[in-house]
Amino acid sequence: MNFLPLLSGPCIAQVAVPFTTASGHFGVFRDGRFEELEQRKPQVVFPNGPRVAYITEQGELRGWDEGQLMNYQRGEPVSVKTSRGMLAWKQGGRLLFAGEAGPKTICHDAGEFTVQDSLVAYHNEIEKTLCVYWRGH
Fold first, then answer.
1. What is the dihedral of CA 14, 16, 21, 26, to 10 degrees?
2. Is pTM, for the whole model, over 0.90?
3. How far is Cα 53 from Cα 43, in angstroms, rounded to an integer?
4. Residue 100 confidence (pLDDT)
5. Burial 74-110, CB ≥16 within 10 A → b, else e
């Protein structure tokens, strides 16, 4: 016997939940509403708590944060990493972070990098140092 759980109240996602419709449209569900973002399914989606980042069919890195659609990177391949609402990516040797006002360059000559909790750790290849970006510094 199968049971279907009943919801006694409104359905509200505490995080942004990405979805793709049967017709290929892409969007997010958050705060009890569905919002369409793209007419076509993205190449890759990075769910990230209250935010969602994705690479469009054309290769652009975009993000959705609290109802705002942001264009982060156009045209060039990027390496993206996320953790607990933090988003960082590398384009060539340049390491960028998704700030409130848009993309912010952290380092111009970064090697390997990782994103964990509220930190972006990276290797500065010019200065030969291991660096950490935390709370804007």
1. 170
2. no
3. 11
4. 78
5. eeeebebebbeebbbbbbeebbbbbeeeebeebbeeb
Would you say 106 and 97 are in contact if contact means Cβ atoms under 8 Å apart? Answer: yes
Query: What amino acid is encoded at 1 in this protein?
Result: M
Closest CA relative to residue 104, chosen from 64, 58, 69, 135: 135
How many Cβ atoms sit within 10 Å of the Cβ of residue 33? Answer: 11
Q: How many residues does the chain have?
A: 137
Q: What percent of the chain has pLDDT over 70?
A: 90
Instruction: Work out the average pLDDT over 51-66.
Output: 91
Strands of the sheet containing 26-30, edge to edge, are: 17-20, 26-30, 33-38
CB 123 within 8 A of CB 112: yes
Structure tokens at 131: 């660096």
> Quick one: DSSP state of residue 90?
E
pLDDT in tens, 90-114: 999 999 999 878 899 999 999 999 9
44 closest CA partner among 28, 22, 59 = 59
Q: What is the gyration radius of the CA atoms in the chain, in angstroms?
A: 17
Residue 20 amino acid letter: T
